[in-house]
Amino acid sequence: MISQESSVPRRTKKAKTFILGIGLTLILSLLAKGLSLLPFLSIMGQLVLAIILGMIYRASFGVPGSIMPGVAFSNKKLLRFGIILLGMRLNLVDIAHAGPKVVLIAAVHITVTIFIVYGLARLLKVDRPLALMTACGTAICGAAAVVAIAPLIKAKDQETVVSAATVAILGTLFTLIYVGLYPFLGLTPEGYGAFAGSTLHEVAHAIAAAAPGGKEAEDMAVIVKLTRVALLVPVSLCVGYWASRSQGEKTQKSKIQIPWFVLGFLLMSGLNSLNIIPHAVTAQIINLAYILIAMAMAGLGLNVDFAFFRRNGVKPFAAGLMGSVVLAVIGFTLVHVLGFA
Known about the structure:
By secondary structure, this protein is an all-alpha fold. The chain contains 16 helices and no strands. Helix content is 80%, strand content 0%.
C-alpha cells in the first residue's frame, strides 16, 4: 500500500517534467516564429532559428535530464505529425497545370544533387547517415527533408542537427548570392523563378530569392519548389527501402521500413488539392505544422552543443557547398534548355 502511494508522486513528477520538456520546445518554437518576422532574420526562417535557439539555451543554461523525455517526444512524435500537416501546403493540381517541364527539372535536380552531395560527403569521410541527410536536405526541401529522412536511417540527434544547420546555412548564403546576381543573369521573371525554385534549399529561400523578379518569379519559384517537396514522398520510400536492405544484410532480415508519416503528408496534399477546406483553415493548419516542426527543431538543438558542431560540421558543409554550386550550374543550364528563360 505504501509503495503504491509512493509511486503516485513519482508518476506525477514524471508527468510534470515531461510537460516541461514539451513546453520548453514550444516556447523556443514560438520565439523562433517571432524572430523570423524580423526583416534581417526572415531569410533564415522559423525552423533554422528554432535549432539555433535550442543550441543557445543548452549552452547558456543547460538542460536537466529529467525533462529530456518531453524534449524527445517533441523531436520525434510531434515532428511526424507536423510533417503530415505540412502536406496542406502542397496543391497537386497546381503542379499538374505547370506541366511536365516543372516535374522534369525538379526530378533531375533532386537525383543529381543527392548523388553528388552524398558522393562528395563520403569522399570526405562523412558518416553515411550524415552524408545522406545533407544530400536529401540540399536536394529536396532543406531542414524538413532532413528530419523526414532521419528516422528512416536511424540517424542520431547530433547528426540530424548538424545536417539541418548545414543545409540551412547554405540555403541562406545562396539566397543572398542569387539576389545579388539577378540583374546579371539575363533571365525572364519566369525563368528566374524556375531557377530559384529548382535550386534553393528551403521554400522560404526560394521565395526570398525570387522577390526581385516580382510576382511572376515568385509564383514560378513556389510551384517548382513545391514540386521538389512533393518528390520527398518517393525519395523517402526509396531511402526507407535502402535502409531496410542495408540493415537486412547485417541481420538477415528484409523488413521494409515504410515512412507512414510521409504517406500522411501525401494524403493531406491530396485533400488540399480538392479545395474543400477554406483557405483560412488551411493557413492555420500550415502554421500549426511549422510550429510542431519548429518544436522538433528546438528539441534537436537542445541535444547538441557547439563543440560537437565545430568538430563534425565542416566536412558536410564542404560537401553541401560544392554540391550547391553544381546544382546552381545545372539549374541555370536546364532553365535555358527547357525554355523557361
